[in-house]
């Protein structure tokens, strides 16, 4: 069974049990055997929270770190979801002479420019 839920909520799906031959398995009453499953669809945290980072001055030779604040769907300030992890997108490339890292547990981003790097 595959599908892409489009709304949050509790849903049920009923499936018919099939035998190895691909035909429905019949119960003692002669009717196909079915099984019902309940599942809950929730919005991904990435869709519910928006991290924001303050502008931060980077001085060559001195690492600069900024910690995110978060806003919820209603644009009100909130806390990060418990257990959230953070990463830099794999296609991100820091400018030449810069190193950018992210703390996977806090979302804090540290940027460092080598001494002599043009800013």
Highlighted features:
RibLong; Long Rib domain-containing protein; elongated; 119 residues; single chain; three-stranded antiparallel β-sheet; mainly beta; 8 strands
- Point out poorly predicted stretches: none
Overall number of strands: 8
**Helical element count?**
1
Task: Kindly name the structural category.
Answer: mainly beta
Q: Choose one word for the global shape.
A: elongated
| Distance between the first and last residues' Cα | 53 Å
Strand fraction band? 25-35%
For the biggest sheet, the summary is: 3 strands, antiparallel
Helix content bin: under 10%
Report the mean per-residue pLDDT as an integer.
85
- What sequence of helices (H) and strands (E) makes up the elements? EEHEEEEEE
Radius of gyration: 25 Å
Number of domains: 2
Strand order of the largest sheet: 3-5-6
